[in-house]
Amino acid sequence: MSLIDEIDHLKEVIDDELNRIFVNKTGYQEKIFQAMKYSLFTGGKRIRPILLLKSCEMISGSYDEAIPFALALEMIHTYSLIHDDLPSMDDDDFRRGKPTNHKIFGEAIAILSGDGLLNLAYEIMIENTILFSKNREDYYKFLLASKEISKASGIDGMIGGQVVDILSDSESIDSLELEFMYRCKTAALIEAAVVSGGIIGGANEIEIDNLRKYGRCIGLGYQIRDDILDIDEDRAINKTTYLSFNSLETAKEKVEYLSKEAKLSLEIFKDNNITFLEEIAYYLINRNK
Amino acid sequence: MSLIDEIDHLKEVIDDELNRIFVNKTGYQEKIFQAMKYSLFTGGKRIRPILLLKSCEMISGSYDEAIPFALALEMIHTYSLIHDDLPSMDDDDFRRGKPTNHKIFGEAIAILSGDGLLNLAYEIMIENTILFSKNREDYYKFLLASKEISKASGIDGMIGGQVVDILSDSESIDSLELEFMYRCKTAALIEAAVVSGGIIGGANEIEIDNLRKYGRCIGLGYQIRDDILDIDEDRAINKTTYLSFNSLETAKEKVEYLSKEAKLSLEIFKDNNITFLEEIAYYLINRNK
User: Fold this and answer.
1) CDD domains under this entry (chains A, B) (predicted)?
2) B59 and B198 in contact (C-beta within 8 Å)?
3) Closest-CA distance of chain B to residue A104, Å
4) Do A163 and B120 touch (CB under 8 A)?
5) Distance (Å) from the C-alpha of residue A119 to the closest C-alpha of chain B?
6) Interface test with A, best of B21, B24, B28, B92 (most A CBs within 10 A)
7) How does DSSP assign A217-285, residue by residue?
8) What are the structural domains, with CATH classification, of chain B?
9) Of A8, A85, A44, which is closest to residue A280 (Cα–Cα)?
10) pLDDT in tens, A17-71
11) A176-190 pLDDT, tens per residue?
């Protein structure tokens, strides 16, 4: 299967599972189910859950046990987008060509549907840890994966990065603070996807270290590629980006370097099937849109 | 120790532990730490964490293992207040006599500090489950307590109740829908406090059932008492409450009934020290402010 075919197949798996969560969900509060579902299905690329599943599969040969955690991660990513788009945050009316959540459901329901997705992510991880665990080692493994995701999502991860992003609108930041922001806001969740997938697959500590490095490289590379594409497309930029401190050439070299480093991190897994993770790293860091 | 002395002592325990979480927490995102701390320390009565600790202690004789879960519950309660107060929700400028979070820190940081508290609650529960568990039974117990709290906080619990509350501003609701709202918005988290405390203490299924009934009675009683106090204080009410469908006398009878039922639910624990839970039930349901 080609990379794109495999991505499409995994997207279908994830979409089906996400849909199943909302089947027959009714009640007085059903407006929030609609709002959550709306944002879960506005054309997300499912990169984080796909990385989680394939990282697990690379280690263990199967991704079945990782599915609930992949869904949880996509919910956390989606809630962050809903809250980011709010009028008091980035004030975006459209995302991926569709009206943002608050434009359709109003601000109050948008905030609550974000809250609902974040909470549901944890409900799902907790419930499935109970369901899947047969022994002490299982509990430990799933809890470690949940911990990885929770840290990456929190105030020392994604939320922390978003705080710096918001504050940087009104005050200038230096290259160190930008690096912190990129690491937290974008790279943390991508790193957590790869690492938690590996943990669920049964990776040992050295393997986890290498998966972490791989995830960090593609997370940062993905973000700098974004900055390069923004310049290429000549979009209006008032924000501080990697290109505020570096030339376009340096940025491209950095992306090239991260791409190679990501590939190198996979070398210890050479007895496993690493094709997908190798190809998707290249694809994410070197994409043209 | 009198009930009030004991409540004051437990509040101190909880405040100290909450404070400890933020000691030496600095970083580019430190504005969010300030915002989270601000709302955690604006005079909350700590009812939910106190119930959690004392329910655990009633079963096991100690509440040490329950502390992180009590903190998590208070964080979830606090995040819900921050988001409830937002302009697009209840639009409150003051809470407990102090400016609300968004009045001090702005809407964006208020939303993010709510998100941060919700996420941190789960980080703490997950981390301490790993830390405290020596065997399979421990993992199961702490995960069950976390599940109880997560369900009560989510779209079929507190968030679901808040959705109905928001929607009821623009459309009238009947008594069944009001009951749903009360059960979700107020009672669910109080019930979860008592039940999860019991689970951590090692309660068996019959004991959990009785703790659940106890928690549900005081949760609902607490809310109806609120409605009665609002009438007594002649506050302007445009909202549907228990008194929209029932006379003041019926409401008082209902509260009396719930108070007795709560007490009855504790009978099976008569060999344990139930004084505190008996007294706080009466205190919460029959309070005058």
Assistant:
1) Trans_IPPS_HT
2) yes
3) 14
4) no
5) 6
6) B28
7) HHHHHHHHHHHHHHHHTT----S--GGGTS-HHHHHHHHHHHHHHHHHHTGGGTTS--HHHHHHHHHHH
8) 3-286 (1.10.600.10)
9) A8
10) 999 999 999 999 999 999 999 999 998 999 999 999 999 999 999 999 999 999 9
11) 999 999 999 999 999
pLDDT grade for A237, boundaries at 50, 70 and 90:
low
Percent of chain A with pLDDT over 90: 92
Nearest residue of chain B to residue A177 (CA atoms):
B28
Per CB-CB distance under 8 Å, the chain B contacts of A120 are 154-155
DSSP state letter for A272:
S
Helices (runs of H) and strands (runs of E) counted in chain A:
13, 2
Q: Which of A21, A109, A153, A163 to mutate to test the interface with B (most CBs of B within 10 A)?
A: A163
In the chain, the amino acid numbered B86 is L
* pLDDT tens digits, B148-165: 999 999 999 999 999 999
Q: Which two tokens stand for residue A241?
A: 């980006």
Q: Quick one: chain A helix, strand, coil %, rounded to 5?
A: 75, 0, 25
Q: Which amino acid is at A16?
A: D
Closest CA to A267 of A217, A219, A214, A221: A214
Q: Collapse the DSSP code of B98 into the 3-class scheme (helix H, G, I; strand E, B; otherwise coil) and give the result.
A: strand
Please state, in angstroms and as integers, the Cα–Cα distance from residue B133 to each residue in A76, A199, B130, B254, following that order.
27, 19, 6, 42
Q: Cα B161–A33–B188 angle (5° rounding)?
A: 25
> For B67-91, how does the pLDDT look when each residue is reduced to its tens digit (9 = 90+)?
999 999 999 999 999 999 999 999 9
Q: Please give the span between the terminal C-alpha atoms of chain A, in angstroms, as a whole number.
A: 23
For residue B108, the chain A residues in CB contact (below 8 A) are: 86, 88-89, 166
Tell whether ipTM is more than 0.90: yes
CA angle A83, A86, A90 (to 5 degrees): 100
Residues in chain B: 289
**Residue A77, SS3?**
helix
d(CA A209, CA A95): 34
Q: Which of A126, A144, A167 sits opposite B146 (nearest CB)?
A: A126
Query: Mean of the pLDDT values across residues B42-69?
Result: 97
For all residues of chain A together, what is the average pLDDT?
Answer: 95
Q: Which of B29, B122, B139 is facing A122, going by the closest CB pair?
A: B122
Give the integer Cα–Cα distance in Å for A123 and B194: 19
Residue of B nearest to A129 (CA): B143
Going by the DSSP 8-state scheme, the letter that residue B186 receives in this structure is: I
Strand partners, A99: A94
CB-based contact B139 A153, cutoff 8 Å: no
> Is B126–A143 a contact, with Cβ atoms under 8 angstroms apart?
yes
Indicate the SS3 state at residue A95: strand
Mean pLDDT of chain B: 95
At B175, list the tokens. Answer: 């008594």
Which of A108, A144, A177 faces B28 most closely, judged by CB atoms? A177
Residues B281 and B214 sit within 8 Å (Cβ to Cβ): yes
**Which residue(s) pair with B99 in the sheet?**
B94
Contacts of B119 in chain A (CB under 8 A): 118, 150, 153-155, 159
